[in-house]
From TrEMBL:
Record domain TGS: where: 290-365
CDD domains xref list: DRG (cd01896)
GO molecular function list: GTP binding; GTPase activity
InterPro entries, per database record: Beta-grasp_dom_sf (IPR012675), DRG (IPR045001), G_OBG (IPR031167), GTP-bd (IPR006073), GTP-binding_2 (IPR031662), GTP1-OBG_CS (IPR006074), P-loop_NTPase (IPR027417), Small_GTP-bd (IPR005225)
Matching PANTHER family: DEVELOPMENTALLY-REGULATED GTP-BINDING PROTEIN 2
A Pfam family annotated for this UniProt entry: TGS
Residue stretches making up the OBG-type G domain: 63-290
Protein name, entry field: P-loop containing nucleoside triphosphate hydrolase protein
Keyword annotations: GTP-binding, Hydrolase, Nucleotide-binding
Length: 366
């Protein structure tokens, strides 16, 4: 039996099994097996089918956004609107057959936008170019899930399920569970507070199934589920990515419907056709990326505001140094900071100081 068939079999069994206290343990074990098989399915094959590989587009710029969605929702229309790249647009499905990169210039940053082929249900199991599309999405800093506002609400959950199945976790952080494999000593499982959904028995059975016989587990979140625990075991196959849900074609829906869509979290609405809300979508994407612009300044000279250094949210002066030059930290003495992160200006700070968007920094070396 092939991996796909085994997956089908387990999925069928899970569907047949009623969810209740008595079956909880059995279902948990099945989930563990399913996660392992799915990861196996995504391993690159030796036959060169490239199951786990994305499209051959090299990363460029300060961040990458992937446009993911069902066919004909307007992904290519959006790319053509916000970048100088023209990607073919047409009313039929699967107009786009490969990854088309474009560059969005925003506030001194260059963001690569990846237009991708439409995906369909079953993409995670290899339908269409689904797996390649999803692999490409996995490499992005932000997924823009483009949705057709005229279609049923289920479309969003269907797409989410496809991305979930290959280990992408949208707008979530890794579970608060510590797991460390050991050479010997058996299993040591502890909970910081009584678990609501997990038990020592379930955890140890799943660990045995994964042949993790010697390890230490500390569950720090009482609300952690079996899915969370499996994500921790499979952490090399999990990717936590931000997602902005973008509903296009709002020119075709009622105001009431538009209003309810716009209120959903992490959501923006637009009409590429009428050029409505497109720039708001770009602003929202920028916010979600949480990139920071930092300007460097030489002593006695005005900072150059046309040349921003782009760093990730949460970056420190040390990260800024790395961006300027590989060895700069070695000769670093201190930095002077003007801007939102400074309590008084200029503030004298060390490498650990966290920077804010639009800070000006003067680095003083030995
Ligand atoms: N009514 C309306 N139609 C739109 C809008 N944006 C795009 N379209 C139309 O939707 C159709 C599909 O657009 P594409 O940009 O090719 O869609 P896609 O998501 O790239 O499609 P695939 O590459 O086939 O997956 C085209 O006929 C567009 O003209 C919009 O805001 N409103
Ligand atoms: K299309
Ligand atoms: Mg397209």
């Amino acid at each position: 039996m092939g991996v796909s068939e085994k997956i089908k079999e387990i999925e069928e069994e899970m569907k047949r099994t009623q969810k209740n206290k008595a079956t909880e343990y059995h279902l948990g074990l099945l989930k563990g097996k399913l996660a392992r098989l799915r990861a196996q399915l995504l391993e690159p094959t030796t036959t060169g089918a490239g199951a786990g590989t994305g499209f051959d587009v090299s990363k460029s710029g300060d961040a990458r956004i992937a446009l993911v969605g069902f066919p004909s929702v307007g992904k290519s229309t959006l790319l053509s609107k916000i970048t100088k790249t023209k990607s073919e647009v047409a009313a039929y499905s699967f107009t786009t057959l490969t990854a088309i990169p474009g560059v969005l210039e925003y506030g001194g940053a260059e963001i690569q936008i990846l237009d991708l082929p439409g995906i369909i249900e079953g993409a995670s199991e290899g339908k269409g170019r689904g797996r390649q599309v999803i692999s490409a999405a996995k490499t992005s800093d932000l997924i823009m899930m483009v949705l057709d506002a005229t279609k049923k609400a289920e479309q969003r959950a269907l797409l989410e399920a496809e991305l979930e199945a290959v280990g992408i976790r949208l707008n979530r952080t890794p579970p608060n569970i510590y797991l460390k494999a050991k050479k010997a000593g058996g299993m040591k499982i502890t909970f910081t507070s009584p678990p609501l959904y997990l038990s020592e028995k379930l955890i140890s059975s799943i660990l045995r199934d994964y042949k993790l016989l010697n390890c230490e587990v500390l569950v720090r979140d009482e609300a952690a589920t079996v899915d969370d625990f499996i994500d921790v075991i499979m952490k090399d196959h999990r990717k936590y990515i931000k997602c902005l849900y973008v509903y296009n074609k709002i020119d075709c829906i009622s105001l009431e419907h538009l209003d309810s869509l716009a209120r959903e979290p992490h959501t923006a609405v637009m009409s590429c056709e009428l050029d409505l809300g497109v720039m708001d979508v770009v602003d929202r994407a920028w916010e979600e990326l949480a990139l920071l612009r930092v300007y460097t300044k030489r002593k006695g000279v005005q900072p150059d505001f046309s040349e921003a250094l782009i760093v990730r949210g949460g970056s420190t002066v040390g990260d800024v140094c790395d961006q300027v030059h590989r060895n700069l930290k070695e000769s670093f003495r201190y930095a002077l900071v003007w801007g939102k992160s400074a309590v008084h200006v200029p503030q004298r700070v060390g490498l650990g100081h966290s920077v804010c968007d639009e800070d000006v920094i003067s680095i003083v070396t030995k």
